[in-house]
Amino acid sequence: MTPSALNTSRGRVRGERLETRVTADQKNLIEQAAALQGRTVTDFVLTSVQEAALRAIEEHQRLDLSVRDSEPSSML
Asked: Which of 4, 30, 58, 71 sits a CA distance of 20 to 30 A from 47?
């Protein structure tokens, strides 16, 4: 498929691919959740993974800032 064929509804090109193996139970669970939200499995998975990644990064940044804030200042 050419990159122009991979345009998303938001105009971004999806040129990269992620793959994973899941159990039948995991696949059924994901399909059920996507269907309940009226979304494709791909959209459901991408959105869920992206949100989880952003949360993980933000949490790490908050913890990093907290550690730096609790360290004695070298300017004293």
From this structure: 4
Domain count, the chain: 1
Provide the whole-model pTM. 0.67
What DSSP state is assigned to residue 11?
A: S
Closest CA relative to residue 20, chosen from 52, 35, 42: 42
Cβ–Cβ under 8 Å, residues 23 and 14: no
Q: What are the tens digits of pLDDT across the range 9-33?
A: 566 788 999 999 999 999 999 999 9
Q: Compute the chain's Rg from CA coordinates.
A: 19
Q: Which domain holds residue 63?
A: 3-70
| CATH code for position 36 | 1.20.5.780
